[in-house]
Write a structure and sequence with these properties.
InterPro entries: Ice-binding_C. This protein has 279 residues and is α+β, with helices and mostly antiparallel strands. The chain contains three helices and eleven strands, in the order αββββαβββββββα. The radius of gyration is 34 Å and the shape is globular.
């Protein structure tokens, strides 16, 4: 009987010990699970924060829609309401030098988002010219205008030697797109220096085509590009090369600064490295 009682006591103690071990193991397991959940939550919060940082860098590079200034040399009878151009953009500024009494200057040209910039434009040695549709066998790029037939680049400057100056350019670095139908163009930065470039290019004839084509010495096109400029102003002069030279539009396009790309790459790289460390 005593042996039986002893066995009962041992059995009870064994059961109690087993329960304690089981409870302790479960508690440790729950604790570890809780720690894992907390770690996962922290990782998610950390990822969210770093993602926000990376997104803010991307936003800084893309949210500013003030990266294009576009000008249409017009006859005063047409308005661009859509977006167009080799660099597709809206809110084209119109210099109506063909209209009676129209000024030959524009101040505070608007960006492609419609807000005012500091840039000013002046045009010299121009003639009234004629609308391409009447004198030149069709407007320069009617068919490339998005939803706005017969109203883009309809006025051409006919003087060889005509020039315009763009000043107070708000970009540290930029490209200049010149829409033209002429033989020779020269772009010079101000203050006066050696010309940035002088190109004898091949341009399309009376009907300048149904798409935007960059002109080269061997490819007939309807616009030329001067890339990687950094002056606060420039002057462009056209030479007709013995024929009527035409300038009928311009775009100044900002070139993103290297620091912007470095910020984006750094933020994304930091996200990747820190996540690997926390796993």
């Amino acid at each position: 009987m005593r042996q039986v009682g002893l066995n009962k006591n041992l059995s009870s103690e064994f059961i109690s010990a087993s329960l304690l071990v089981s409870f302790d193991a479960r508690r440790r397991s729950e604790s570890q699970t809780l720690k894992i959940k907390k770690t996962d939550m922290k990782n998610k919060q950390f990822l969210t924060a770093l993602t926000a940082l990376a997104a803010s860098a991307v936003f800084a590079a893309t949210a500013d829609a003030q990266d294009v200034i576009s000008v249409n040399f017009d006859d005063g009878n047409n308005t661009i309401s859509g977006s167009t151009g080799a660099v597709n953009a809206g809110n084209w500024n119109a210099l109506n030098f063909g209209a009676s009494g129209a000024p030959n200057t524009l101040s505070d040209l608007v960006f492609d988002d419609g807000t005012a910039s500091t840039a000013d434009l002046s045009l010299q040695n121009e003639s009234a010219g004629t609308s391409g549709g009447f004198a030149q066998g069709g407007d320069s790029m009617d068919s490339t205008s998005t939803g706005d037939a017969n109203n883009l680049f309809s006025m051409r400057n006919r003087n060889g030697g005509a020039l315009f100056t763009l000043s107070e350019i708000p970009y540290a670095q930029y490209d200049v797109y010149i829409y033209c139908g002429l033989i020779d163009i020269t772009l010079e930065l101000n203050p006066p220096s050696d010309p940035v470039g002088s190109n004898a290019l091949s341009f399309l004839g009376n009907n300048d085509g149904s798409s935007f084509v960059e002109a080269t010495s061997t490819v007939a096109g309807n616009y030329a590009v001067f890339r990687g400029l950094s002056g606060s102003s420039f002057t462009m002069e056209s030479g007709s090369g013995g024929d009527n030279g035409f300038i009928y539009g311009m775009q100044v396009v900002a070139v993103p600064e290297p620091s912007t790309f470095a910020l984006i790459a750094g933020a994304l790289g930091l996200t990747s490295v820190m996540l690997r460390r926390r796993r």
